[in-house]
Amino acid sequence: MSDVEEAITQAHHEEWARVVAALTRRFGDLGVAEEAAAEAFATAVERWPADGVPPNPGAWLTMTANRKAIDRLRRESKRDDKHKEALMVYDREPPEPVGAIDDDRLRLIFTCCHPALAMQARVALTLRMVGGLTVPEIARAYLAQETAVERRITRAKGKIKAAGIPYRMPSTEDLPARVTGVLAVLYLVFNEGYLATSPDTDPLRRDLTVEAIRLTRLIRALLPNDGEVAGLLALMLLTEARHTARVSGGGELVPLAEQDRGAWDTTLIAEGHRLVRERLAAAAAGVAPGRYQILAAINAVHTSARDIRDTDWSQVLALYDQLVRLDPSPIIALNRAIAVAELDGPDVALAEIDRLQAKLADYHAFHATRADLLRRLGRSQESREAYDKAIELAGNTAETAYLTRRRDQLG
What we know:
By secondary structure, the protein is mostly helical. It is built from 20 helices and no strands. The protein has a domain at 344-411: Serine Threonine Protein Phosphatase 5, Tetratricopeptide repeat (Alpha Horseshoe), CATH 1.25.40.
């Protein structure tokens, strides 16, 4: 990749959400904002190789996108005689921020996560608008068809426009009811950065994990007593703390058991543990923990162990048992089975995850977990077949490299 191509990729990672948010604030139309932003990046691909990368790529992209948007509005005005109205929209001052925090991207995520939209539409729209993910990337993250994801996004944008859903922060009274959907989306944005689903991007997309953490911190400032906001922030911090140890110098994913724990970020771990302790104290006082708080507690157990052999697997399993009662999803059951393997053996765990096959047949982690359990049981041919299926389904290049090595070690 040339320096210019790398600069364009970096700019897309860092500036996409800013450009879309700025245009949405100015024009009040997500469709216009997205298309103008996409045109601005396409223009960068054409011009930057010849003209050079501008000193401030974000400002260049925002200015170019603004011009693209107003050009589009002018073209449309010739068809419907609304030229003056379009110019007024463009020239007016941005509206005063509504809410305690003035942040364009936070307003954008609350717009995309409006309760008038179905949850799947909220997630897909936010991953596109805030995360900058492509439709194929969202489809892989969703385990869904690309055409279905495209339809969800198109319908969501149309509903926002038709219903006049405002681009602003919810009122203080409405925040608690609105935040659940936002947290779900931020968690998915973080997960896409933690393990990118596309083979065409970096295996770890820290632009997404860092942005998800930043936005979650802002929501925590708005709702400091919300346990699930604190739980999600703790979960993100404890996961992000391990990022430097997750990919080897050769570009291969390093599983938790093999990571250099001395490379973990102790500052992030300390902050995450502090948040978990706060939530444990609340649970002791009778406040039942939610999904993110339990996931954070599981990560706290892992990051408290100095060595994989020191992991308190009985505590991990007890937490998963608690989580399954809240979220009986097959993916949670799959992760629980990993703890079962450590306590009761790979044969017991294999019997549990084989019951999940119908629901997780297209999920690469199911086949990767099954391959590892079969390897531990000495069933090499079956393990190889499971690795082959996991490699076929995995999009992440670092994960593919790791799975390929493990398969080839079977001989």
